[in-house]
Amino acid sequence: MNETDLITKSENFLEKIGQEQLNIENISNLDVFIETYQNLKENLEKLSDLKDSMESKGYKTPYFALTNHALSTPSEVVLDEVHEINHHNKYFRLKATAKKNIHDRTKSSIASHKIIIGILEESAILKCSSCHKIYSIHEFYDLNNLRCACQSSDFNLKIDNTGFSRIKIIPFLPISGNYMVLRSDLSSWSRESFNKIMKLLRQERKGVIKTVSLKIKIKEDGRWIRKNVTMDAKNEINYEEELRKKYGTNVRLEFLQFQRTKPTIINDKHTRMALALAYSKYCELEIKKSKEKILNSKLNDFDKLKLYDSLFLEAESYQPSNWEDDEIIKETRKILLNKYLNENNLTVNAELDPKIVEDIKLRLEIEQSIFTEIPFILISWDLSKYYLTTSQDKRTLISGPFQHIRNTLDRNQIRGFKDFNEDSIQILRKYLNENIEIIPDLKDILLKKFEIEQKMKGLNMKTHHAAFGAAFVNLESDIDINTCSKLFGVSVKSIEKEQSNIKNMGKPKTKKAKKFLQMIKK
């Protein structure tokens, strides 16, 4: 397949994906769910093949060929050939830009598909109608002919909305790779939210040693020869001993240098972009539905402000019939606005009513300090629940909706999680029907959770991970156990059981273990 055909094929496929509507409203229907899930998996496979084809043809670095071309161009060029060379350079640059754009769109679409598949896999619970055995999506597809062990093929689907997977953001993901279009469509305050989320997800971990560069001297045929060697960094490794194993005893280490990497919370820019867009746009539209009610409850006189807005727009829509200077048009619009304001009793002493001026400022403050925080708080809450309600092993194997996410965070990355704004939380509860709480010192709670996970390694503890997270929050904060039960969608009994496990962690349970510890103490 030549380059033009590959670009055209990819664009057509992405357009086709964009035209297919995901039926999220009926996703709880088993047939709709299976059809949607299978289509997404098939699309992802085709997109991955297209991406591989592009990268094999150099689409990842298309401008590199232009650099080589520029280097190979003779320094002395005949004047008549300058125009032709410029024309060719322009053509190849446009072609390189087209390659780069379609490669980025494809990668963005792949990221969105993986997020949606992760959301569906994490949210869906399948239950056999006959024996009531519960299956995850992976277990369900591993069944022979989609039949339960009891040979029943009748399953019930339940969508769990109590976890960290947010099905409602799916329609706002750039599934066709149109992230630039969606980004330009954001309002001014949701664009600010987008930037805040991107900053959070880009928060870097403290430098981690990835590789080590070594300069060594080895003896070959009676002569000393210097070599540069690169090795993967490992904990508690003796580099000299490793070198002797590989090059023999006649090796001398002369120089050693560590290369560090600073991985981000989500280590893929297209995944970060997709999540930031989806959360920002979802919250923008949800707030838009209730914006008038919210402003009416917080402003002095919202009806007067609405009237002022309509009069202002009417004055600004003035267009002269003949050509006029810009300054004259601006002055005419100002005169018209003053006229409209006087006619509607919105002035005091020939000036705009001070209460309206105050409401204009207050509305801007609400948008900047409350509305912009809502998408940021929502994704911070979901990320916190992800880390609180999953084990480190699960996070290593399965990312769910947060593809390419770090399985643990360090103190530097935790700083990105801010304390929740109380006004924003109230709006989330009242108008977006979110089950969310302000958890004091959430950053410290997450760090302590990671510390406990390290202690749990090798203990072979069987835990209910969601209940474990709820128990931990209850123990480390002033959130009562009943509220934790509702927040994490688990029973009070399971929370109490996990609290007991946390308190008794590391203590001997059997008589033999207790006797052994007593012997050690003696």
> What is the count of β-strands?
8
| Global Rg | 31 Å
Helix-strand makeup class? mainly alpha
Low-confidence spans: none
Strand order of the largest sheet: 2-1-3
Distance between the termini: 77 Å
Shape label: globular
**Proportion of residues in extended strands:** 5-15%
Name the helicity range. 55-70%
Count the domains. Answer: 4
Give the overall average pLDDT.
85
What's the order of the H and E elements? HHHHEEHEHHEEHEHHHEEHHHHHHHHHH
Tally the helices.
21
Q: Describe the biggest sheet? A: 3 strands, antiparallel
Quick tags:
single chain, 522 residues, mainly alpha, Ubiquitin-like (UB roll), 4 domains, three-stranded antiparallel β-sheet, 21 helices, globular
Layout of SSEs?
Blueprint: H1 3-19, H2 30-56, H3 63-72, H4 79-123, E1 124-128, E2 134-135, H5 137-142, E3 155-159, H6 179-184, H7 188-201, E4 208-220, E5 223-232, H8 239-247, E6 251-261, H9 269-298, H10 302-316, H11 326-343, E7 347-348, E8 351-352, H12 354-371, H13 373-388, H14 392-397, H15 411-414, H16 422-430, H17 442-456, H18 465-476, H19 481-488, H20 492-503, H21 511-521
Antiparallel strand pairs: 1-2, 1-3, 4-5, 4-6, 7-8
